[in-house]
Amino acid sequence: MFPDLTRDDVFRIETRRLWLRWPTAKDAEAVLRLAGDLAVAEMTARIPHPLPRAEVDAFLLQARRGNAAGTGLTLALARRSAPADLIGIVAVSGGADGPELGYWLGRPHWGAGLMGEAVAAIRDAYFAYAGGDVLRASARLDNPASRRLLERSGFVRTATEARSFLTRGDDVTVDLFRLERARWLGASAIGPETAFAA
C-alpha cells in the first residue's frame, strides 16, 4: 500500500505544530499512560481498559513491522517542540473493506485541534504517496468530537452499524465514513486550510 519512502524509520511528516514519526519502543510508557486512560480507551473500539503493557509492546512491534512492509502507516504524534514525547497515534491500516484510518490523542492534548492536523497529514500522505482511491474511517456514536473531526477532514458518513470488537466484549455502534480520491483532489486544489471547512 505505502511506497518505499515511508518504509524507513527516519520517515516523518511535519505539520505546523506536530511531528508524525514512526513509533519506537521508547514510546511504550507514554502509550500505556495516555491510551490506557479510560477517557481515551472508551472512545475507541480497540483499546482495552485496563491496557496491559504486553499489548502496548505488541502494538509497537506490529506498527513498525507494518510500516516496514508498507502494508500500513502508523505514526506517533509529537509536538514539534518535543519530538521524542508521544502524545497520540494516527494510522492507516488494512481493514475488512480496505484501508482504514484510526487515531487517538492523549487527554491532556484534547481541544487544541492537534488531531485534525494529524488526520489531515496522514490523509494527504495516503492519497499522495500511496495513490489510494478510498479511505474509510469509523467513529463511535457516543464520540461526537471524532465524527466532527472526520467530517471536517472531508469524510462523508455512509452508514451506521454495530460492529463486534473483542476489547469491548460486545457490539459497538459506529458511524461509517469514507473519503474518495476525487473529493480529496478537489479539496486539495482549494488549499489545506479551507479544504473541508464546515
UniProtKB/TrEMBL annotation:
Q: Which UniProt keywords apply?
A: Acyltransferase, Transferase
Family annotation (Gene3D superfamilies): 3.40.630.30
Instruction: Tell me the Pfam families matching this sequence.
Output: Acetyltransf_3 (PF13302)
Q: What are the N-acetyltransferase domain coordinates in residue numbering?
A: 17-156
Q: What is the top-level taxon of the source organism?
A: Bacteria
Molecular function, one GO term = acyltransferase activity, transferring groups other than amino-acyl groups
Membership in a protein family: Belongs to the acetyltransferase family. RimJ subfamily.
* UniProt-recorded name of the protein: GNAT family N-acetyltransferase
Q: Which organism is it from?
A: Methylobacterium radiodurans
Question: According to the entry, what is the taxonomic lineage of the organism?
Answer: Bacteria, Pseudomonadati, Pseudomonadota, Alphaproteobacteria, Hyphomicrobiales
